[in-house]
Amino acid sequence: MTVQERYKAIIEWFEANMPVAESELNYRNPFELLVAVMLSAQCTDKRVNMVTPALFAAYPDAVAMAKATPEQIFSFIHSVSYPNAKAQHLVAMAQQLTERHNGQVPCDEDALVALSGVGRKTAHVIMAVLWNCPTMAVDTHIFRISERLGLTTNSKNVLQTERQLTKYIPAELIPKAHHWLLLHGRYVCTARKPHCEQCGIREFCRFYKK
0.90 cut: is pTM over it? Predict the structure, then answer.
């Protein structure tokens, strides 16, 4: 099976079996999504969804959060991973949004990564989810299963994975493909023990054939 054939088969399976693929983070507007994605770094979406309702009730927008102290934010997010650093980043990010962007989340990648605590992956998630941009956000799940499936070969880092995936996945499908791969890695092709017996794409998988 060629790389192109593998991509085609896997994409066709996901289109047929997972026509709706969306973020599992709860949010109501761009600001809430940005905060939730920042909190989700090295943390489960389930845990983030547990802390954000009270956080958003207290700080519903960038202007409100910009007036908070990191200590105040920490009191809401202490149960997520790295709460001290994330509290610092959230306050700084909100202040920057208020000062530079009228409190609105920008749709430009350079403007997003210039915000405190926002890296390439976070920016790509925001752009894909909010504006359907063809930006592939590669996390540990996607990095792992892309190599297992054979969508990437000898990828050494997330940037190499991103480049290989965006080379073969049609641009209009990239926002959805991010969720296809993420959810597959989260629930089926898990890190320690992949559930190959439950996997609908195992016949196309390089790892399974080996």
Answer: yes
